[in-house]
């Protein structure tokens, strides 16, 4: 299928990324964060490899059940939930939930008595490309109070957790989360069994080195010292980003106010949501244009009539000077947070289709 735009996804790269994650974190239960790429083949592959799943909605629950994830391997990671969400989870056999408010603890006590509860701590998410800015998590004092409340209302105060923010490039961010968890344990007197390290493990995008999984693992290990709770992590991006190439086409090239604008048939609403604020700058490739071809700076824009549908204005994006309508532009490392973010039909443009394929070797081994 040659529809444009499309996401070409290589399942063997997902498998390699999963094996690599297991190698770097041999003592951690990996719970794939479904929202990064919920394609049924990805879920089935990871389920088959024994991965757990971190889910956030009834839709993701159903997708996991269809893919064959065992309910005991599921954790409901979203601290914002309806009573009907909890009922559906309990009916399916899910018994691990993340929480970060008294109201949600009480909801769980009503709808999921006896369930294992993990309290989410707020961590300083500086260093993340997409910080949460206070949307989730509580300080250690409040986490301690929530653990005690959970115990008192008949839940299991099972764990503490945090999420250092997606595309987190500072390993010490996980250390700060662990330090907060240690403090919450000390304050509450509850010896939690589980520590959830969240997601955030970065993948390579534009310029700039990102820490390896082994560097992050070493930082986490050093911070844990002799504290050995059951460890869970919720990688999303790290398992699927490298497996995807988003293939698009040039629609228009023109000059505006002295800058060269390139309009593609893909934009913010067909899967490139993470270009918002230019937080993720993808590596681009133009097949058919030799690497040595002369290049110049562009403003890169999407095809819709929305003023926000501009991918990069400030980032230094250089494309071949002879780029023309019909030419292909590829976004590398685009397997995460693209197809799942595409709108259902803004301006009549369909959601981004996924094509399962085998990518040629150079695309699979970003250096
Ligand atoms: C989105 C999310 C993740 C995955 O984050 P990545 O940066 O893709 O690894 C993990 N945990 C929670 C709670 C999330 O919301």
TrEMBL record:
Pathway(s) the chain acts in: Amine and polyamine biosynthesis; putrescine biosynthesis via L-ornithine pathway; putrescine from L-ornithine: step 1/1
Modification N6-(pyridoxal phosphate)lysine, positions: 35
Domain Orn/DAP/Arg decarboxylase 2 N-terminal residues, every copy: 14-241
EC number(s) stated in the UniProt entry for this protein: 4.1.1.17
Annotated keywords: Decarboxylase, Lyase, Pyridoxal phosphate
GO molecular function: ornithine decarboxylase activity
Catalyzed reactions per annotation: L-ornithine + H(+) = putrescine + CO2
Record CDD domains: PLPDE_III_ODC
GO cellular component: cytoplasm
Active-site residues, as the UniProt record annotates them: 305 (proton donor)
Domain of life of the native organism: Bacteria
Keyword Lyase assigned: yes
Family matches, as InterPro entries: Ala_racemase/Decarboxylase_C (IPR009006), De-COase2_N (IPR022644), De-COase2_pyr-phos_BS (IPR022653), Orn/DAP/Arg_de-COase (IPR000183), Orn_de-COase (IPR002433), PLP-binding_barrel (IPR029066)
Any one GO BP annotation for this protein: putrescine biosynthetic process from arginine, via ornithine
Cofactor: pyridoxal 5'-phosphate
Family: Belongs to the Orn/Lys/Arg decarboxylase class-II family.
Name the record gives this protein: ornithine decarboxylase
Protein source organism: Actinomycetospora corticicola
């Amino acid at each position: 299928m040659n529809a444009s735009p499309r996401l070409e996804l290589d399942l063997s790269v997902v498998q390699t990324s999963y094996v690599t994650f297991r190698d770097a974190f041999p003592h951690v239960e990996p719970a794939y964060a479904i929202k990064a790429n919920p394609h049924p083949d990805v879920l089935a592959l990871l389920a088959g490899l024994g991965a757990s799943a971190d889910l956030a909605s009834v839709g993701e629950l159903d997708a996991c059940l269809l893919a064959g994830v065992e309910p005991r391997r599921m954790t409901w990671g979203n601290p914002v939930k309806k009573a009907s969400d909890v009922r559906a989870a309990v009916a399916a056999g899910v018994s691990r939930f993340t929480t970060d408010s008294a109201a949600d603890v009480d909801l769980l006590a009503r709808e999921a008595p006896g369930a294992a509860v993990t309290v989410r701590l707020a961590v300083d998410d500086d260093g993340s490309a997409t910080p949460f800015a206070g949307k989730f998590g509580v300080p250690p004092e409040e986490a301690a109070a929530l653990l005690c409340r959970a115990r008192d209302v008949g839940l299991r105060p099972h764990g503490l957790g945090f999420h250092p923010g997606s595309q987190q490039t500072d390993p010490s961010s996980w250390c700060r989360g662990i330090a907060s968890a240690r403090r919450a344990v000390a304050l509450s007197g509850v010896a939690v069994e589980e520590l959830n390290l969240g997601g955030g493990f970065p993948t390579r995008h534009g310029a700039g080195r990102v820490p390896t999984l082994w560097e992050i693992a070493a930082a986490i290990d050093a911070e844990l010292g002799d504290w050995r709770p059951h460890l869970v992590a919720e990688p999303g991006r790290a398992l699927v980003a490298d497996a995807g190439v988003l293939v698009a086409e040039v629609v228009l090239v023109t000059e505006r106010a002295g800058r060269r604008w390139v309009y593609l048939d893909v934009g913010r609403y067909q899967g490139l949501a993470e270009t918002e604020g230019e937080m993720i700058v993808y590596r681009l490739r133009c097949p058919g244009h030799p690497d040595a071809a002369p290049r110049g700076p562009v403003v890169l824009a999407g095809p819709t009539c929305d003023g926000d549908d501009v991918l990069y204005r400030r980032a230094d994006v250089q494309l071949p000077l002879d780029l023309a309508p019909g030419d292909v532009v590829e976004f590398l490392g685009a397997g995460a947070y693209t197809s799942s973010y595409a709108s259902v039909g803004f301006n009549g443009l369909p959601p981004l289709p996924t094509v399962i394929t085998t990518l040629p070797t150079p695309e699979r081994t970003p250096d």
